[in-house]
Structures are given as structure tokens and as C-alpha cells.
Amino acid sequence: MKIKPLAALLLALAAPASFAAMPADGWRFDFTAKPAPGYTAVQAGAAYDTARGYGYELDNTAAKGADANADKGANGATATFFSADVPEGNVAVTVTLGPGTHTIKSEVRRLMLENVVVPAGQVATRTFVVNTRTPQIAAANGMQPGVVNLKAPRETVQEAWNWDRRLTLEIHGGVDKVDIKPVQVPTIFLLGDSTVSDQPGEPYASWGQMLTRFFKPGVAVANHAQSGETFRDSLARRRIDKIVSQVRPGDVVVLQFGHNDQKQIKAGSGGPFTTYKAELRQHVEMVRAAGGLPVVVSSMERRRFDADGKPESTLADYAAAARQSAGELGVPYIDLNATSKVLYGALGVEGSKPAFATKDGQIDNTHHSNYGAYLLAKAVASGLRDAQLPVASQIVDGFAFDPARPDPFDKFAVPASPRYTNERPLGDEANR
């Protein structure tokens, strides 16, 4: 499927005036044969155009199947990609759905709606909130203006949809109408490594991509995590600066690092109870100074079992350091490390395999599949609720999670994305 080249992204950043402005009352698109009054008709095959400000993200080289607007990936998955220019920040997206089963993801595979079933002869509307961003850092909350130091080509090519000036929807099942308008709601910012970041292609996924599924439109999720990184990288690449420049009172900043920080021990440049804690403290203090609420999360375990089939610890020191830091700093703490061990133990040696990405017959014992990411997102949402954070009031109705009784894999039916990659997420190479 189509991925924006680096040159196109750089042009977008250098010349924002070339992009169409969202109408004052927002975008209103109609994809049906008889567009409703007040809506912009979207013609089949109308490719995205910067002057127009909207259109399909079409790849003329991709297999199309029955729908000329849809892309078909190497994994056989099919979806339609539609983009519209929006201002940086949070936008409320209301979709009108006709008969059928509908799943919608946004930007780089963030799950927004899961298998919404609309009976024959009926229509349904659903609203969700998507966070969009650019690399520019505003002079706000004490931050110096500048840009996030993006990783090329990963963020400038494979993940460019996370950084451009448009909202992109990945549509499974079709839509009749799409209404888009800016909205002011509390934001949950995510900062972490590959187990949190928006993974650009199957078979990899992260809990950060799935967390959006479990919140009502009264909250936005802004995922600033990136593969292969540590607290130190967040500071050096100005990821935390970008978040702090946007934080408002009532916003939450979830911090989860550990997997890649272990490499600093081998390099002689740090450890869990020294530099890791110091850099974590620096993040917490920056978020607090901007009026946000930091939340510390310990890293989930890797898939590793002992001879008796019990999960082994590979990140115990970093989990302990995260717990100590949260206590010392007086911030909420989610023990995802402990929860993941209960979860993997409940799944078992064989049952845990589908929770991790498998490529070319090899299981990646660090990075998760859609199924595993989905379960861990539920664990994080449950942790936010157990911590009694105000944003937890926006968790979807009927939400439940018990790591000792995980959702069975044979009931998991989130459709895969056409975007497929042969590139393993960055970092943690020694712990596949």
C-alpha cells in the first residue's frame, strides 16, 4: 500500500500553506451515491490532493480486489484509506455506517472501532477522537521551539502518517458519511518503546495502538512512543519536549520504558537504580511543571518460561526501579510487569504463542501480535481505572479485564491491516 516518501513529508513540514484548511464548521464527507445536503461528495478513486485537502490514499500498484478504492496487502488483508487535512490536536470523528460489519483504525493502525455490526436496512453512528501531530515543538510550557528529531526512514516513511498534517482513516467495511471537527478533551499521552509505539505493519502491534479502542470520545490518546528507545532517547530526540509543549491541566502522560534501557548496562552507561531512575524523575518533573499527571508503568515481561511452564522474569530490576520511582515521586503506578506474568501464565507455553508476533515461522518473544497487544491494552486501561484517575471515567461501558482469565484467542476477530512489514521493530535484538 502507499507510504508517503521522505521528500513529500519534508515538503509538508516546510510549506504548511500548501495544505487546505479545514472548513470553519469541520469536514462533512458523504461516500454514498446520493450525497446529503451540506456534505462534500467523495467520488470513487478521488486520490488525496493537497489543494483539495482530502481523498483516498491510493496505491496504483496494489491489488484491489472488488473495490477499486481499497488496498490489498501481502497478507491478504484489505482496507480503504481516506485522509483529510486537519489542524494539529484532537479531532472528533463521527461516522455513519450502513449495513455490515465495520472496523476503523486511524493514523498508523490505531484501533478506534471494533467490529460494529449494523443490521440490514439500518444505519448507525459512532464517534471517536483521534489525535494528530506534526514534529514542530511550540514555545509553550517552558519549552524552546524546535522539532522532534524523527528517525529516518522509520518515522519519515513507514510511520509518516503519524506526523503529517492530515487525519488518515483505515476503513474495514465501508462508511456512508464522515464528519470531522476539532474538539477539546483530556488527552492521554503515551511515551515508551516498541511495545507501546504505533507499529507500522503486520504482524507487529503494541498496546498503545489498541488502547484507543477502550475509551469513549471524551478522551484522546496521543501515542508518542517509538521503537528502540529509552528515557534517555526521549530527552535527546525531544519527544518529552513535544508532549510537554502540548500538555494541559487534566492530561495524563503514561511512561513505560525498560526493554532497551537494559542495553545501557552492557554499555556501561547506566542501570535501573541509577540513570534509569534519574531520567524517569526528569520526565515526571517536566510533566508536572506543565500541569499534567505522570503515570509510571513497568515494562511487560518477554515470553520466557521455565522448565515447569511458569513465566520467568527478565525485567525484574527495571520493574522494581519503576515501582520505587513512582513511590518516591508520589505518582500513580501500573505494574504491567506483574500483570503480564499472570497473563502469560494463564495463557500457558503454547497458548501464549498467538499473543506474540510470528514472521516466517519464528516467534518474536518480545513484540506482540494484535491479540497480545489487545490484551495488554486492556491491562493498562484496567490499571488506569484501579488508580482512580479521572480519565478512567471515559473507559467504555461494559469493560472488564482479568489477566488470570484472558479473552480466548479463538474469539479475537480484529481484522488485520494491509500494511505488512518484513522489518522487525527496533531495539531489544538480543531478546527475541
Automatic annotation (TrEMBL):
A family per Pfam: AGA-YXIM_GBD
Source domain of life: Bacteria
Keywords carried by this UniProt record: Hydrolase, Signal
Endpoints of the signal sequence: 1-20
Taxonomy of the source species: Bacteria, Pseudomonadati, Pseudomonadota, Betaproteobacteria, Burkholderiales
Family of the protein in this entry: Belongs to the 'GDSL' lipolytic enzyme family.
UniProt keyword Lipid biosynthesis present: no
Protein name listed in UniProt: Rhamnogalacturonan acetylesterase
Residue ranges constituting the Beta-agarase/YXIM esterase-like galactose-binding domain according to the UniProt record: 27-131
Domain SGNH hydrolase-type esterase intervals: 190-344
UniProt GO MF annotations: hydrolase activity, acting on ester bonds
Listed Basic and acidic residues bias regions: 421-432
Residue numbers spanned by region Disordered: 410-432
PANTHER family: PUTATIVE (AFU_ORTHOLOGUE AFUA_2G17250)-RELATED, RHAMNOGALACTURONAN ACETYLESTERASE
